[in-house]
Design a protein that fits this description.
about 400 residues, Thrombin, subunit H, 7-stranded antiparallel β-sheet, alpha+beta, Beta-Lactamase, PilZ_domain, single chain
């Protein structure tokens, strides 16, 4: 069973038994807790404490299947998150179980909002922005569409002020300079092949030809002279993948014989490379149309369940998500969120813990979200009071 915290919660663990059981008796006895096991919404109640034995008696209304010695944690979010780390000891009677308490941790930072469950008839998530992944750039397997895009931009550059222009993907057998550019993701720029200082760049964004490519400068300079090349530029085309990691797709490779390429032209050519990447990204991006259950939600984040196999494989590799929340009879509410944790249950369904990025949510959308959550909170409190009575 898979589980991963993307951003671990910092906990202060109480150092001695007396403090741990005092906290349980004061805050947790006969309170609803959640079992820290997929998908984090099964409830449990501590009904008795046995401080001298380091044990607690826990009622789990749904029942649970454990073997003696299995670890299990429980948690509850007050103004701060509290977690109990336990070991299963045995069953007392139906739905009541003994656990040995191993640790009690309290979050160092307070949780801003209590999360509420969202009935599917009230709201759900959809329209997740996702990406097709390149098969394996490291093995030079690039979709044909990328070659087609490169060819169009090569034609544009050839019709401009540069002479020998190639916009191409990296290949398995290629010029050694191209391979160095691919691996370092740095630009190789020789402004004037007749001047030795052009081969000794101090700019961290550029390759130092002498130190990183070839230090036999007299031989290299003579070769450029024989070929009639006054300037050379190899600019990498860098694409950020679904994990926000840079991938070297190809290069803009320019050789000029009639004039030198001026350093002032580099920003324009870098913008050209970024334009190519934007075109590839627009081709590579799509939105899902399925509905995804919102397990719980607050003003700061939510947990959603994913059942699509392809997304189950790819979303845990992501750092952020763009998606819509759809409340009943309302237009989609767009949100951007950071993935804080994920896990998979026995059925293979994926659960994502998301934290909203406030700066990415427009003020009008934030107010709409808060209004819906206020209504949801009132409904939830009424339901809880009915259960208690």
């Amino acid at each position: 069973m898979d589980y991963q915290h993307i951003d671990h919660r910092d906990l202060n663990f109480l150092p001695n038994r007396e403090q741990r059981f005092q906290a349980i008796n004061t805050y947790l006895l006969n309170q609803n807790l959640y079992i820290k096991k997929e998908p984090f919404f099964f409830e449990a109640i501590i009904t008795a404490c046995f401080e001298n034995e380091d044990k607690i008696l826990v009622n789990i209304p749904t029942g649970i299947s454990l073997t003696k010695g299995n670890p299990l944690s429980f948690f509850k979010a007050f103004s701060k998150y509290i977690q109990l780390d336990c070991v299963y000891e045995g069953e007392a009677e139906d739905y009541n179980y003994y656990f040995r308490l191993k640790g009690l941790g309290i979050a160092t930072a307070a949780r801003k909002e209590e999360r509420m469950p969202v009935p599917v008839e009230v709201g759900f998530a959809s329209n997740i922005l996702t990406y097709k992944s390149f098969t394996d750039p490291e093995k030079f397997k690039i979709p044909n569409i990328v070659n087609e895009i490169f060819a169009k931009y090569q034609e544009r550059l050839q019709n401009g002020r540069f002479e020998h222009v190639k916009v191409q993907v990296f290949k398995q057998s290629q010029d050694a300079k191209l391979e160095i550019v691919r691996k370092t993701m740095k630009t190789l720029f020789i402004e004037d092949t007749s001047k030795i200082e052009s081969f000794r760049s101090q700019d961290p964004s550029l390759l130092n030809f002498e130190g990183e490519v070839n230090n036999h400068l007299p031989v290299i300079m003579q070769r450029y002279k024989d070929e009639g090349i006054k300037s050379e530029l190899i600019l990498p085309i860098i694409y950020k993948d679904h994990r926000n990691e840079p991938v070297s797709l190809g290069v803009i490779w320019i050789k000029n014989s009639d004039r030198r390429i001026d350093k002032e032209e580099l920003p324009e050519l870098r913008s050209f490379a970024e334009e190519i990447v934007d075109i590839i990204r627009s081709w590579n991006t799509f939105r899902t149309t399925a509905s995804y259950k919102i397990m719980d939600i607050s003003r700061t984040g939510m947990c959603i369940r994913i059942q699509e196999r392809k997304l189950i494989e790819t979303l845990p590799k992501r750092q952020k998500l763009e998606l819509d929340i759809l409340f009943k009879r309302q237009k989609p509410l767009p949100v951007t969120a950071t993935i804080r944790w994920w896990n998979k249950d026995e059925k293979g369904y994926l659960y994502l813990g998301l934290e909203f990025e406030n700066q990415a949510i427009k003020e009008v959308e934030r107010k709409r979200l808060e209004k819906n959550l206020d209504v949801l909170s009132q409904q939830y409190k009424r339901l809880m009071s009915l259960r208690a009575s």
